[in-house]
Amino acid sequence: MPGCRWSYHRLRLGLRTINSKLPTRWSFMPPAVRPANRKPASREERPAPSASPDAPLAPLKARSLKDELASRFEALILSGRFGPGDKLPPERELAESLRVSRPVVHEGIVELAAKGLVRIVPRHGAYVSDYRREGSVELLVSLFNFTNGDQKLTLRLLDHLLEVRILLETETARLAAQRRTGEQLAELERIVAREADMHALPVEEIARIDFDFHHTIALCAQNDVYPLLLNSFRRMYLSVLELFYRDPGVVGPVVGYHKLLLEEIAARDATGARETMAAVLQFGEKKLRAALRKSRGTR
Predict the structure, then answer these.
(1) What is the pLDDT of residues 225-234, one digit of tens each?
(2) Which domains does the chain have, with CATH numbers?
(3) How far apart are CA 217 and CA 206, in angstroms?
(4) Average pLDDT, the chain
(5) Are the CB atoms for 153 and 113 separated by under 8 Å?
(6) d(C-alpha 238, C-alpha 215), whole Å
(7) In the predicted model, is pLDDT for residue 16 greater than 70?
(8) Cβ of 31: how many Cβ atoms within 10 Å?
């Protein structure tokens, strides 16, 4: 059909990825999902909900088929299996191939559209979007979670993350010095006190302390958006910090920068806090790139 840029070969390849190692009709479902023909639990068997904080936690819910389908196609798009402008297979064909209902397929595609991964054209189908133009913050989380061994993708995102950190964290430090509360300053002091023994801690714990320091400064800035953005980067942020702190020689300088930042935020020295944050980030980027070159065996 003219205008349909996807091929059946690519479709079979993508669906083979989705259905690999799935021997039965229900193997596409998460293990805890119950087939529709199984008798539902009786009212007596169902735990009663409770609002009491001391009551047992509510039962866990299995991941829905819609979420599973959206997740699998999200991976196919982010990996480049489907590129911008490609047309997704019709909902009917997807439903038959994946052995799920058409409403499940439709809801999954709608979720992809909400993230900016696809564009739905009425009576024509769904087309893969350029996520850089159409994507949302929700997709940003997916990008950082999706590495799948793709070193080029990871390194490109790392470069972009380092650029964003310089832009945002220097301004955040300035605002933190102006807006921090006494309680927030005390929390920052407790984190810096923990850093006194960082040289003796495992790399993973050092990375968590470092993240807590920067996240607390974001909270001191009294801007609700930046702490949420930082949390979105958390997984990749911690992974990068663990690589950075494999060099024990960086611990001392970082602790020194953090102590100076604490003093400037305590003194409400906005200019000094901004300059010190820029210095520690530039130091970190230089050492991190050296660590990355070493890990790849390049100079």
Answers:
(1) 989 888 877 8
(2) 8-30+64-138 (1.10.10.10), 147-296 (1.20.120.530)
(3) 17
(4) 79
(5) no
(6) 12
(7) no
(8) 8
